[in-house]
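Before relying on records like the one below, remember that each one covers exactly one chain. Contacts with other chains, cofactors or solvent are not represented anywhere in the record.
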Amino acid sequence: MWFINNLDIVFFIYGLAFVIMGLAVFFQPKDNSAFELSKIIWLIGLFGIVHGVNEWLDMWAIIKIKGKIFDIIRWFCLVFSFIFLFEFGQRTCFFKDKNWKYNKSYRYTFRQSILPLVVIGGIFIIGFLSKDFWQVGSILSRYLLGFVGSWLTGYGFYSYYKHDESILNFLNVKKYFLYCSISFLIYGVLGGLIVPKGSFFPSTIINTDTFIEYVHLPVQLLRACLAVVISWNMVGILKIFDNETKKRLEKEIIARRESEKILEEKTTYLDNILHSSIDMIIAATDINFKIKYYNPLAEKLLGYKATDVIGKTVQEIRINEGFSKEKFEEAIKIISTKGLYKYTIEKDINGNKCTIFIRVSGIFNREKNIIGYILMGQDVTERVKMEKELSKLATTDTLTQAFNRARFSEIIDIEIERVHRYDNKLSIIMFDIDHFKNVNDTYGHIIGDKVLKKIAAVTMSNIRKIDSLFRWGGEEFIIVSPGTNIECAWNLAEKIRWVIENEYFHEAKRVTVSLGVAEYKLDECKEDLISRADEALYKAKSEGRNRAIPSIVK
C-alpha cells in the first residue's frame, strides 16, 4: 500500500535510472570504434533520456500538474521513446543476422525507419476513430511499439553477443549482455502489455488495475526496478568501448617502441645494406637533400661516383635529371603527404638505353616528421620489354578492367563446349548504358569514362565468380553466365539493372541500363546466341529502356 500511495517516488527513481543510462551512452567515448553497436547505440540512449523524462512528467502529474496540454506532452514523450526503442531493437536484431534468408528484403524495406512510421500511422488512425484518442493511442503505443521494441531489443542484445562472442568473451561482459537481454524481455511484458485500463481487449482484462489486484504491488514499481537493472547493465556493456580505447593505446605504445627498435637496427646496418645490394640503387639524403648514402650500383646506373656526390645536394649533382623545378616540388609534396613517390627515367649506359624505376620515400622520426629521403631504384629494362610484348596479347579492357572482346571469343567457345559435353545451361546478358551519348555530351568524355568504369565495377561485384564480364564495345557489355537458365539469368539481369539504377555516379548522378538475356540452344552457334541477346536488348530499349528483356525462343 505504501508504494501505491507514493508512486511519485517510484516514478522519480524509474525516470532517473533511464536518464542516467541515456546520458552514460552519450558521454561514453566511442569514436572510430570497431564494434558495430557503436553505430546505433545512440538510439537506446535517446530512449533512456526521453522515457526517463516521461516518467518524471508522470511523477509531476501526480504531485501537481493536470491539464490537457500537459497530457499531450506526456503522450508524445511516451510514443517517441518507444519509437527509439523499437528502431534500436530492429537494427540490433537484423544488422548482425546476415544469414537470415529474409534479411535482405527486410533491410531494403524497413532499414530507414519505415516500419515504426507505419505503426505510428496506424496508431493515429485508430486513435482518431476511437472516442478517446489519447487513451487508445497510449495503449496501442505500448502494445505495438513498447512491447515489440523491448522484445526486439532483448533478442538483439543476445544475438549481438553471440555473433561477436569470440571477441566479447575476453572483455568479461557476457553477464551484462545476458541480464540486459532478459531485463528488456521482462520489461516488454510489464511496460508493453500491462497498460492502463482501456475499452478494448486485452486492456479490459490485463491492465494496471488487475495487476495491483492480484500482485498487490503497482506495476510501476517493478518497471522501476527493471529500469535500474537495465541502466546498470548498459553501463557494464559500455565497458567494451573503454577496453577498446585502452587496447588501442597499448598497441600504439608497443608499435612506437617497435619502430624505435627497428630504426636503431636500420641505422646500425644501413651502411652494409647499401653497399651489399647488387640489384638495387640506394641513395639517401637529409631534409635539405644533401646526399648521405650512395651505393655502388647507384654509381653504375646513375653515372655519378660516390666521392663526387656525398655531401652535395641533389640539385647540385642533378640526380633529379629530367625533372623540372615544378615537377621536383610536386614530388616532394606527394612524399610529404603520401610518403612515397614513383617515377621512371631513361638512361643511356654504354650505348644501351636502360629504363630505371625509382621509388622515393620519406624518412620519418618518432614524431612522424620527415627528416630525410631515401631513393631506391631498379633496372627494369627487360621487364618493360616483356610487358610491352604481353600488352599486345592482353585480354583486359584497360579502361573498365572487364575482359575484352578477344577474351570473349575464347570464353564463349569453352562454355559452349562445356554445354555439349556436360549438358549444362549457359546464358548471356548483353547490356548497354541508356542515353550514354548524353552523358558524354553533357559532362564530357572524362566523366563518361568514369561512368563506364563504375558500371563495370558495380557489375563485377554483383555477379558470381564463375560469371565473366566483357566490354563488347563503347558502352556495351556482355555477361557470360555458365550453368544458368533463362529465368535465373533474367533475375541476375534485373538485379544488375536495379543496382545500377540505385547507384550514385557523382557528376552524372543517375544512370540506367537496358539488358537483353538469351539462353544458349544446342542447335545454334555463338553468333546466333549473341544475335538473340542483341535483339532482346533492342526490344528493351524500344519499350522504354531501363529494363531487362529475355529472348523467348518459339
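The first helix runs from residue 2 to 5.
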